[in-house]
Amino acid sequence: MILDGVRKKIINKLRNGARDNDTVRFEFNEIKKVAILVDLDNFKNPNLLFTAFKTLALKNASLEVIGYVKKKEVEIEYVIPVYQKKEVGLIGKLKSEPLSGFVNKKYDVLINYFSEEVYELVLVSTLTKASIKVGFPTIDKNCNDLILNCDFDKTTQFFEMLKNYLKVIKK
Predict the structure, then answer these.
(1) Name one Pfam family in it (predicted).
(2) Among 21, 47, 49, 148, whose Cα sits 20 to 30 Å from the Cα of 39?
């Protein structure tokens, strides 16, 4: 309980600092870099994200995906870079190079593909620099700029909705 309170304070402090340092948001004519942060404990098919990304029809856009698992399974071969709970310190320090590399890049769109508030996911989302962050309504509203009211298991519908909103934002 106390640990949860400490974690929320850390995220709020980081979030407020990140918002203060943000440059102008939502100003892009072309989307060039998209990132997806996915909860692999609840979403078992990351290949579906690559397929769904294609429905966005973003010309020349690169995609970077990173997944979170509570604990890596030795017998599972992950198709995307994965980080686990122990790679995120209590006070927000990232302990792995792939995770630090992901967070330190600037993206046009960050898709927070998780529907449960897990400290390690919310923290990485907060630390990641993106012009717009998109996610589900079940997450703290301060985590996302655009909230799509869609079920977590309806990946195709989520990406179709995102495609429509991105068309409006780009105009």
Answers:
(1) DUF6913
(2) 21
- Distance CA(29)–CA(89), nearest Å, equals 37
> Structurally, how many domains does the chain consist of?
1
pLDDT digits (tens, 9 = 90+) for 38-65: 999 999 899 999 999 999 989 889 999 9
7: pLDDT strictly greater than 80 = no
The answer to whether 106 and 11 are in contact (CB under 8 A) is: no
Contact 5, 34 (CB under 8 A): no
Q: What is the pTM of this model?
A: 0.86
Q: Is 125 in contact with 51 (CB distance < 8 Å)? A: no
Two tokens at 163? 């495609």
- Output the CA torsion sign for 40, 125, 137, 107: negative
Using CA atoms, how far apart are residues 97 and 101, in angstroms rounded to an integer? 6
